[in-house]
Every structure is written in C-alpha cells, then in structure tokens.
Design goal:
The structure is a single chain. With 323 residues, the chain is α/β, with parallel strands linked by helices. Helix content is 40%, strand content 21%. The radius of gyration is 19 Å and the shape is globular.
Length: 323
C-alpha cells in the first residue's frame, strides 16, 4: 500500500512515517516544512508544498491508496494568530482534499481533536456526546469532520486527546511534555488550578492506531483519548520520577476540563495504551542527556510562538491563497 501523509514532518507525522516505513508501506509526504526537516533514514518521497495548493494536492494523491491527513495549524495559540488562514488550512483545504479522495476512492484518515467537545467537567465523553467547540482551532476541526463525512465513504476520523512523548519534531507547548521539561531543566513545575481533567495519549500509541486503520474496513469517528488524569496527578507522577518541586497557582485556572472514553476505538480497532507518563519522562530525560534537547523554551518547540515569529518575517504567508 502506498500512503500519503500530509504534515508528515510535524510532531505526530515524523513519528508516524517511521512506523509506516518499518512496516513496509510505501510513503509519500506532503509538507511545507515550516518547522524543519525530520526525515527517517529509510527512503520516502517528499513533496514540499502548501496543503491549500489544489493542483499540488491533486497530483500528490494520484498514485496512493490512502491519505493520512495531519497537516494543519495545530493548537489554540497558533490558530488564533490568523483566523482566516486557520479556516483556509484546517477546513477548506481539508474539504478539497476529502473531495479529491472521494473521486479517486482513496481512503481518508483524518486527525481531529477531542477539543471539539468543549468543556464537559461532569461527564465521560463518548463519540455520541454533544459537540460544543470553544476555540477557533476546535471549530475548524469540527467543520473539517463534517465535510469528510458528507463527501467520503471510505474514511476514519480520530479525535485525539492531548498528545505527549518524544518526537523528532518535538513540542513543549503540550502540557505533559512541558511539565517534564520544566522538571528536568528548572527542577520545578507550575500548575494552574490542577483539578481539571484531561485525556492524555502517547504519540507512539496514536501512531500505531493510524497505521492499523489503513487496513481496517471501518468508516467512523473514534476517540483516542488514552488515559484521563487530573492535571495535579500528572504533576505528582513527574515529581516522583524527577524529584522536582510542584508549585500550585490557585488564582489562575485553565477552563479546559473533560474526560474521554476511548472504548469504541479499543473494541473496534484494538487501540491500546502502552506508553505512560513515566515512559515519557525517561525518553525526554534521555534526549536531554544526549544533547538532543537543550532548552525547552526555544521557539521551535512551540507552534504558536514559532509561527508568530515566522509570519512577522514573511507576512505574505498569512494571506496567501492558493487555487
């Protein structure tokens, strides 16, 4: 099977393409390489370009059996930098790509987010729970999901919990990764409120299920929430592993509070949680020890900050429309 991975050089994509190659898939990557190049040693085809470029996207899918669509402006901070661009990239470009896949009977696997559910502090969220996005980022993903379901028969939509774990294109704007880096580098973690729940899932476990979905004859929407933790419990786990100090700020509270049920994906696709927070502490600490990571506060590790600086230098990227 030949697979196109859009956004294949990103945080999730750079882990996923390695797994695909290890399992002997033929891999093509479409990515604008905004964050750099994170390519595995095995051979693959790289197309550098903008997912909004209709002609480029049409050419990219001509010879593939499936597409895993990861490309997008990811995260609330990054999405809020330019609302028009976020809608164009996350929704309109996805809708165009889904239509192309439908016309060519190409399987379409989409990376969405559990943020589409909004804040649901008093319930366990399933795929049948009400959709109530609170942010532009979540809204753009909800619109993209709707477009895929309207035009595709051969698809899978994965609503991801908060990812964590080591990646070639590392991110420290994700809460578990940031806590671990703070514990290693600064010997302390600051948490805000701490009683809010969040679903956390390791990037390796998510990558495994994307690979499995290529061969599954399933067409539906699935939560990949991993395990639900209170933020304060995450900090305690990292404290026990690193000996860091935990600082609680009760005067500021993060409103995002929800727990997610991933039973449907477990029963249908064999989704398993194999990597926990303790594992992530070990792999990120090893990356520090080996000099792979030196300072988690560098802008390249933060989607919103990196894009803000990039667009200040090249403002045309913000308004570019590709037909």
């Amino acid at each position: 099977m030949k697979v196109l991975v859009s956004g294949g050089l990103g945080y999730l994509g750079s882990v996923l393409i390695q797994k695909l190659l290890e399992q002997n898939f033929e891999v093509k990557v479409l990515d604008e390489s905004i964050y750099g190049y994170f390519l595995p040693k095995k051979e693959l085809e790289l197309i550098r370009g903008d997912i909004r470029d209709y002609k480029l996207a049409r050419k990219a899918i001509e010879d593939v059996d499936a597409i895993i669509h990861l490309a997008g402006i990811i995260g609330d901070a990054a999405a809020n930098l330019n609302r028009e661009l976020t809608i164009n990239v996350n929704y309109i470009a996805t809708r165009r790509l889904a239509k192309l896949c439908s016309e060519r009977n190409v399987r379409f696997i989409f990376s969405s987010t559990c943020s589409v559910y909004g804040a649901r502090p008093n319930e366990m969220i399933t795929e049948k729970s009400e959709i109530a996005p609170l942010s532009l980022y979540a809204m753009s993903k909800m619109l993209a999901e709707d477009a895929i379901r309207r035009c595709c028969d051969n698809y899978a939509v994965f609503r991801l919990g908060t990812l964590f774990g080591l990646s070639p294109r590392m991110r420290f704007d994700l809460v578990v990764n940031r806590f671990i880096a703070q514990a290693i580098q600064e010997k302390s973690i600051t948490i805000y409120g701490g009683r809010q729940h969040r679903p956390f899932v390791h990037i390796q476990d998510v990558s495994d299920i994307f690979v499995k979905a290529l061969d599954k004859d399933v067409n539906d929407t699935y939560n990949l929430g991993g395990e639900n933790y209170m933020i304060s419990d995450v900090a305690k786990i990292i404290e026990q592993k690193t000996g860091c100090r935990v600082i609680l700020r009760s005067d500021i509270n993060d409103p995002r509070n929800y727990a997610v049920d991933s039973t449907f994906a477990k029963k249908t696709l064999g989704f398993k949680v194999t990597k926990n927070i303790e594992y992530a502490v070990s792999e990120i600490r090893n990356a520090y020890d080996e000099g792979i990571i030196k300072d988690y506060t560098e802008p390249i590790f933060n989607n919103g900050e990196w894009l803000r600086r990039l667009w200040q230098q090249e403002p045309l990227l913000q308004v570019q429309q590709v037909n």
